[in-house]
Design a protein that fits this description.
Elements lengths: L12 E5 L5 E5 H5 L6 H50 L6 H9 L2 H47 L24
Antiparallel strand pairs: 1-2
Helix pairs in contact: 2-3, 2-4
């Protein structure tokens, strides 16, 4: 059996820190929840919720691209240094030996960790945006279903009637 250990999958709370250092904590269960008794309000707020989270995702993708460029700059800076160090040791610098040297440098490790961090955050936000897309589809479907129920009635057998006399079974005819 394969055991996969992960840290806390904390999709419930998400803290967004703006460029001024101020933050707001979002409870994703609350953000994605649908209040059936106020469906029209939920439908009206859906586009603004979706655009907010997709905008946050785009901003993270921008930071992700920026860190990838930083990583490329670090590699470009370390490449000549790696070649020089390899030549000093008397070996011929090959692509593999240069890559191995670069990957051992702390500057590369730090830049790579930043890239991985933004990859992780972008992935999480992409799943949140996808959840809002599914929420939109569900709201549309549910709204259509309610409209049809109002137009055509609830349909035979769609509601369970309760007996007006507790503890007594309803009699629908036939032998008892």
């Amino acid at each position: 059996m394969l055991d996969v250990k992960v840290d806390i999958l904390d999709f419930q709370d998400l803290r967004i820190i703006d460029e001024n250092g101020e933050y707001r904590v979002y409870d994703m269960r609350e953000e994605l929840k649908v209040n059936e008794s106020n469906l029209l309000q939920e439908m009206l707020h859906q586009p603004s919720k979706y655009i907010y989270w997709s905008s946050v995702l785009e901003k993270i993708k921008f930071f992700q691209e920026k860190t990838e460029l930083q990583l490329e700059l670090v590699i470009a800076k370390l490449d000549p240094q790696a070649r020089e160090e390899i030549k000093k040791s008397g070996d011929k610098p090959t692509k593999d030996s240069v890559d191995a040297y670069i990957k051992q440098q702390q500057e590369f490790v730090d830049a790579k960790e930043q890239c991985l961090y933004y990859d992780y955050i972008a992935g999480r936000l992409a799943r949140i945006v996808k959840a809002f897309e599914q929420r939109k589809d569900m709201l549309q479907s549910y709204g259509k279903q309610i409209a049809e129920d109002k137009t055509y009635g609830a349909g035979a057998g769609s509601r369970i009637e309760q007996s007006p006399f507790p503890g007594q079974q309803q009699y629908w005819g036939g032998k008892q």
